[in-house]
Design goal:
Length: about 80
């Protein structure tokens, strides 16, 4: 028969709960960053009017919906 004190049971329970919460937190952070990276991939900054718009087509030179100028696809960097 294994004897376990109440303190050990509570400590094991707390460690288990904290480990699960930490795992969920890491997983949610990874998914949030992945979604942001995917959204940023389709955003284009117009070099003429400065509008940031989204274009999901494969066209290498998409047209700005605001001023109709043609823009190159460049990575938008966060500050």
């Amino acid at each position: 028969m294994i004897r376990v004190s109440l303190t050990q049971i509570i400590l094991a329970y707390l460690i288990l709960i904290l480990t699960v919460l930490f795992g969920i937190w890491i997983g949610m952070d990874y998914l949030r960053k992945r979604r942001a990276r995917t959204a940023r991939k389709h955003k284009i900054h117009c070099s003429i009017c400065g509008v940031i718009y989204e274009d999901t087509s494969d066209n290498p030179l998409p047209q700005c919906p605001n001023c109709q100028s043609v823009n190159e696809r460049m990575k938008i960097q966060d500050i």
